[in-house]
Design the sequence.
């Protein structure tokens, strides 16, 4: 039996068991194992509040197992982690009643960080997809692309100024700052066109956060 057949079957069985099998390659290290297998006890998700103030986006985030997070935000139980952030999310859930999922957004990301110890990062998002059905985080990844074909979303992330070397690169490549929202674009391309065909009574309910 050929090696690739055994390897493909191995990867399939690991995935069915809830794990992942990463392919490892190296040009310098000899004897490196072909596959790194990881099993996770539970899928971890983020419950996050985001707010923009004076052009800076502030995030308040908690990491929880998916089942606990979904039970909390759906009002079935209290947050298992009591903290300042959980209290802020509780206030948000109390203030905005009837919260429910309306869109599924997914994307593939490559992230790079500076080696000088600063918090400067550059991320590239590709395959940005949205849909309004099968909103569970455990469902398959598919949907309507929201980026033009062949385009990638690049973001520069830093708490202070952009490093001088990066500003030089941006100037040379004629890359200029612009505003882009994944959810806002999904709303324009997917959600709003569907609202135009409904009556105003239903539209009022659809605009609830």
Sequence:
């Amino acid at each position: 039996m050929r090696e690739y057949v055994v390897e493909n079957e191995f990867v399939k069985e690991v995935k069915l068991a809830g794990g992942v099998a990463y392919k490892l390659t190296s040009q310098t290290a000899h004897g490196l194992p072909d596959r790194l297998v990881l099993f996770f006890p539970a899928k971890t998700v983020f419950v996050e509040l985001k707010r923009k103030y004076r052009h800076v986006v502030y995030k308040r985030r908690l990491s929880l197992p998916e089942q606990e997070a979904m039970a909390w935000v759906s009002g079935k139980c209290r947050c298992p982690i009591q903290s300042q952030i959980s209290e802020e999310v509780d206030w948000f859930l109390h203030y905005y009643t009837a919260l429910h999922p309306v869109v599924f957004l997914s994307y593939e990301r490559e992230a790079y960080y500076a080696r000088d110890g600063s918090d400067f990062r550059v991320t590239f998002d590709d395959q940005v997809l949205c849909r309004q059905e099968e909103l569970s985080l455990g469902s398959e990844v598919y949907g309507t692309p929201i980026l033009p074909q062949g385009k990638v979303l690049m973001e520069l992330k830093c708490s202070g100024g952009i490093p001088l070397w990066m500003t030089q690169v941006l100037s040379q490549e004629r890359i200029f700052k612009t505003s882009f929202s994944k959810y806002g674009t999904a709303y324009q391309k997917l959600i709003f066109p569907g609202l135009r065909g409904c009556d105003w009574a239903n539209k009022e309910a659809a605009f609830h956060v």
In short: Residues 199-209 have pLDDT under 50 and may be disordered. The chain is about 30% helix and 30% strand. The first helix runs from residue 3 to 16.
